[in-house]
Amino acid sequence: MSTVLQVSNLRAGYGSLPVLHGIDLDVAAGEVVAVLGANGAGKSTLLRCLSGLLAYSGGASFLEQSIQGVAPHLIVRRGLIQVPEARHIFSDLTVLENLLVGGTAVPQRSERMRILNEVLSLFPILAERQRQQAGTMSGGQQQMLAIGRALMGRPKLLVLDEPSLGLAPLIVKDLYEALRRLIDIGLTVLLVEQDVTLALQVATRAYVLEGGRVALAGPAAELRASPHIREHYMGC
Q1: What DSSP character marks residue 135?
Q2: What is the pTM of this model?
Q3: Which among 105, 130, 154 is the end of a domain?
Q4: Do residues 22 and 10 lie in contact, with contact meaning Cβ atoms separated by under 8 Å?
């Protein structure tokens, strides 16, 4: 499998406060790679680096081209598209308008409409509420909209930052069922998730961050059986 994302010795922080201390990570085409860890482990800082929002040392390449120092909008155009924590939808726009904003990088109108139909099929609630103001939707519906908006950009790597955070269990179940359908058709995903049990059910491989370092890494099945993971993250 070809490598989609390669991160080497990545170090970053905020001012004089170091947060990441030499992260090595890779994602191959068609994989679902989870990044796990407690609050403060460095997960969100890593995503800020990969999205071009935070300077770092070391290296990061996407589709064999460096993304270090590249502007966020250009990283998105290359196909690395993130669904941020807390969604950040355009509350004053309708559902449909939010989705169409996500498709602005796709020049052909016919292709945008094709992708739009796929997204509405994946999330039927969005089809039902196309004309509804996005800010009036529930948190779970907004999360589906945020993912749908990202899919409109034809991601080559979809990055999900805490997609289950703050959502009711039934909504999380629906969300992950939709995610599994995307995985089944070969979408490459980098998943940051505090719910370790849930993440390891869909991931191919996983990295566990502790104190800004990779503490554990390996196939998801191996990590599910790890005594350290079961004791510290699963409560077993």
Answers
A1: G
A2: 0.93
A3: 154
A4: yes
| End residue of a domain, out of 154, 171, 198 | 154
Shortest CA distance to 157 belongs to which of 65, 93, 224, 90?
65
User: Using CA atoms in the order 20, 26, 31, 32, what is the torsion angle rounded to 10 degrees?
Assistant: -10
Q: Are 61 and 48 in contact (CB under 8 A)?
A: no
Running DSSP on this structure, what letter comes out for residue 172? H
How distant is the alpha carbon of residue 84 from its chain centre? Answer: 7
Report the alpha-carbon distance of residue 190 to residue 86 in Å, rounded: 17
| pLDDT tens per residue across span 19-68 | 999 999 999 999 999 999 988 899 999 999 999 999 999 999 999 999 99
**CATH number of the domain bearing residue 52:** 3.40.50.300
CA 127 from chain center: how many Å?
23
The reply to whether 149 and 163 lie within a common domain is: no
pLDDT digits (tens, 9 = 90+) for 97-110: 999 999 988 888 99
Domain span at residue 118? 87-154
Q: How far is CA 236 from the centre of its chain?
A: 27
Enumerate the H helices of 152-206 as residue ranges.
169-184, 196-202
At residue 28, φ and ψ (nearest 5 deg) are: -95, 160
